[in-house]
Design a protein that fits this description.
The protein is mainly β. It is 0% helix and 46% strand. It contains no helices and 7 strands. Strands 2-5-4 form a 3-stranded antiparallel β-sheet, with no helix packed on it. Strands 1-6 form a two-stranded antiparallel sheet. The protein has a two-stranded antiparallel sheet with strand order 3-7. The chain is elongated and about 55 Å long.
Amino acid sequence: MVENLKEKSIKIKIIDSIPVSKTDKVEVKNINLRPQPKKKNYQDKEGVNLWEFEVKPKEKKQINIEFTVTYPKGISLYGL
């Protein structure tokens, strides 16, 4: 969550990512981004998302990112 504590509106960019599987044994599904990003795969990087907001004084903005990762038992995942 981002809150504008200034007395004037500000413009912000938020860049965040979701996991991207590099193997067919690991699946990322049920991806839910709220609100939807302005740009998916930002700067041609898979899984990277860009949001741009104008935030008014004392206003808060929140981004919700949800996903499910499934993989076979016995596999160790790194970097989630």
